[in-house]
Amino acid sequence: MDDELLARDLMDKNFASLSRSALLRDAALLLQAARELDGAEARSLVVLDEDGAFAGAVSMITIIEAVTPEFMKESPHLGPAAWEGLFAECIEGGARMKVEDVMHETVGTVREDSRLPEIMLAIASGRIPLVPVAGEDKKVIGVIRLPAVFGEIAKRFARMS
């Protein structure tokens, strides 16, 4: 069947992670290093709790949102003049934020034997481009990245007459 592809077939066991208490600065630097190693494939980091279980995720978008002032998000028409003297302050403040204060906790995990439709649902319902794969002990054993899932969908489109 077309949906027989399992999470273990798509998951990447090499993924960057950090703790909830890490600083946002550390998350940004780790994500940039992971992108350089993975050829820009990494777009998110897995956040682990003290036991190595999934606690959340932080993405490039999460970091950008965290250092963008609320009033700018609510009034994007203000333009560049509104940033005058504010940009450096936002970056400095963001650098001191903790990952746990900005991470997405609502991201679903899947198991190694989860099928493609379940993986697609986890990506579609989350706000980050990865799905953690958890083992029986709830520890993260891999991640499935958005391009892998998109590639499977594109393959199926290509097979259509």
Radius of gyration: 18 Å
Q: What's the shape? A: globular
Q: How many structural domains can be distinguished in the coordinates?
A: 1
Number of strands: 6
What is the distance, rounded to the nearest whole angstrom, between the alpha carbons of the first and last residues?
18 Å
Low-confidence stretches: none
Spatial ordering of strands, largest sheet: 1-2-3
Instruction: Let me know the largest β-sheet.
Output: 3 strands, mixed
The structure class reads alpha/beta
Oligomer: single chain
Helix tally? 8
Instruction: Provide the helix percentage.
Output: 40-55%
Average pLDDT value?
87
The sequence of SSEs as H and E is HEHEEHHHHEHEEH
For the record, the CATH class is Alpha Beta
Quick recap:
With 161 residues, this protein is an alpha/beta fold. The chain has 8 helices and 6 strands.
Report what the structure shows.
Strand 5 and strand 6 form a beta hairpin. The two termini are 18 Å apart. The mean pLDDT is 87. The chain is globular. It is of the alpha/beta class and 161 residues long. It has a single domain, classed as CBS-domain. A three-stranded mixed β-sheet has the order 1-2-3. Strands 4-5-6 form a three-stranded mixed β-sheet.
Give structural attributes.
161 residues; globular; alpha/beta; CBS-domain; 3-stranded mixed sheet; 17% strand
Per-chain topology:
Blueprint: H1 7-10, E1 17-19, H2 24-37, E2 44-48, E3 54-59, H3 60-66, H4 70-74, H5 87-95, H6 99-102, E4 110-111, H7 116-125, E5 130-134, E6 140-145, H8 146-159
